[in-house]
Amino acid sequence: MESQAGVGSGSTLLKAIVFAMFAMFAMTTDSVGTVIPQVIREFRLGLTAGGSFQYATMSGIGISAIALGFLADRIGRKATILIGLLMFGGSSALFAAGHSFPLFVTLLFVAGLGIGVFKAGALALIGDLSRSTDEHARTMNLIEGFFGIGAIIGPAIVAYMLNTGASWKWVYLIAAMLCASLVLGAALARFPQPIVTRAEPARASEAIRMAGDPAARFFGTALMLYVGAEAAIYVWAPTYLAGYKGAWTGLAAYVVSIFFVLRALGRFLGVWLLSRFEWPTVLLSCSAGMTLLLWIAVLGGREVAIFALPATGLFMSVLYPTINSTGISCYDKGRHGAIAGLLLFFTCVSAVFAPMAMGALGDSLGDSAYSLVLGAIFATLLVGQCAWNVSRRPFKAMLAQRNMADYGETGGLGGAPAA
Fold first, then answer.
1. Tell me: the pLDDT tens digits for 230-246?
2. How far is the C-alpha of 240 from the C-alpha of 40, rounded, in Å?
3. Cβ atoms of residues 353 and 301 within 8 Å
4. Chain-centre distance for alpha carbon 276
5. CA distance 250 to 229
6. Which residue from 149, 141, 204 is spatially nearest to 25, judged by alpha carbons?
7. d(CA 126, CA 333)
8. Cα–Cα distance measured from residue 50 to residue 241, given in angstroms and rounded to the nearest whole number
9. pTM, 2 dp
10. Which of 65, 69, 92, 358 is the one with CA 20 to 30 A from 242?
11. Are 322 and 395 within 8 A, CB to CB?
């Protein structure tokens, strides 16, 4: 491992590896909405059972995030990333030999465990490479921009394979091949020595103890509400629009793809927004725009939802990386692995139970449109939380303290002073 003084020379390569990692696993996790209808038909499943492809992955990510996120602080970023990549790549490769629904669900769970491990290590690494909390937030938006690119590529691969008569499983096999190259790159790369400001080594219970902190609860809850709103679109929108026969039938098939394109573009735009405006204002404005469009989709029906749902991507784009990076930045770098794991756990709890509730609601009421209603409710609650944050500014002192202690600066997230 290289010294902190040598960070600059290798930081570009390490960031590129992290960008590629996020794009790679997004190919599988965000193509699930396109895969689920195929799985439902192939194995003759209901909506709730078919959603297991979502539940399994997110359950694995959540369990490893809360239980193993501390590894990034304990054994180092490099070892943690390699362990997670090997788990993800191995399980994805085994899709080639699988033919049963239970086996696929098991492989997705193991892949999720791997994602949770290497994602916690990658997020902690970005903290080591950042020179301020401002830069941390901007880099996180760039990372999520590349995640958005992977989210575009994944569904496109599934659609292409289905059109050519090939199996949907190819998206997992391609991800496995990409993962192999990332394992090699991470193994050969030189990682910086993390800045540790704690006297005791990280423990497995670290994330659980941190769950009692007000900042962790706030940002964790915000992530849960955001993911609940997002799941209504990328998990269930294809099913909701599958039976549409109106004037925009051709466009309806690409709603999720357009959503992912706009979300990716918006995340690069988020870098610009956060360099000019305070992060609480950005979160409130974007969450309000997302919520308005979701309610328009709910009230306007499928004909309107075809346009309103993908447009939410522009507003959603900035929310996740900004909430996540700000929550991580509230804590010292010696606990970045643990807090990243904890926030990822909150994310995955919502990613499992929100679409599960939507699927169950659709099954019981006979219409997947209710997924949008639930998503709009989650979004509305997030607006309320962001409005409270703007009015109270409860984390201004924490972020200012971390800037001084970790970076020797007095600036804060979101442009000018910390807010």
1. 988 877 887 788 778 88
2. 14
3. no
4. 24
5. 25
6. 149
7. 10
8. 16
9. 0.77
10. 92
11. no
